[in-house]
Amino acid sequence: MKEVIQTASRRNFLGTVTAVTLSATALALLDGNDAMAAKMKDKKGSTANDVGILNVALGLEHEAINAYTLGAQSGLLDKGVLDVAVLFQSHHKGHRDALIATINKMGGKAVAEKTLAQYATDLNAGSIKSAGDILQLARRLELGAINAYLGVIPSLNDKALGQVAARLAADETMHWTLLNSALGGAAPAGPLSFGA
User: Fold this and answer.
1) Distance between CA atoms of 84 and 135, rounded to whole angstroms?
2) DSSP structure class, residue 155
3) Tens of pLDDT along 60-106?
4) Residue 48: CB partners within 8 Å, gap ≥ 6?
5) What is the spatial distance between Cα 193 and Cα 190, in angstroms, rounded to a whole number?
6) Which residues contact 100 (CB under 8 A, 6 or more apart)?
7) End-to-end CA distance of the chain
8) Looking at the whole model, is its pTM more than 0.90?
9) Cβ(168)–Cβ(148) under 8 Å?
10) Between 3.10.350.10, 1.20.1260.10, 3.30.1490.20, 3.40.50.980, what CATH number should domain 2-182 receive?
11) Sign of the torsion formed by the C-alpha atoms of 137, 123, 90 and 100
């Protein structure tokens, strides 16, 4: 049931992105290119819709960070797996920081992180009984993130700016691949397995 809820929330993100195109301004800011963003902002005008989309993405990054925190605090992960989980969490923190900086530069207000207890409830952490359960949760969240970030790319007019979303998706794909391998999962059987 929680998997359906998580997938639905990421699909809502994709629907939002499809309905309201993330502007080149937002992506230029996300990539740290303030000069490019300033030029585009003059041409594009309002960024309120972009801030909304970025806040949805930020909410997903908050969720991932807290999922890894819950896993790390569970005591169920051995040192090697824990080290990888902390590394992946640091990637999500980098995504979060870039999103917050971009939202602030656009004059928006970043969505607040929930409490760890709220994420524990949302992610049904009480049902986690093994390291495998933690890895399965992380794999599911990473797959949702891959699909969410890849879903942004087709809405971009400038191919160079699509690279920003692709870089985020690449991080998530690396996470999913390593988690899937650790769980003994098979490689996707067909081509074009992500982003559909």
Assistant:
1) 11
2) G
3) 899 999 999 999 999 999 999 999 999 999 999 999 998 899 888 88
4) 108
5) 6
6) 58, 110
7) 21
8) no
9) no
10) 1.20.1260.10
11) positive
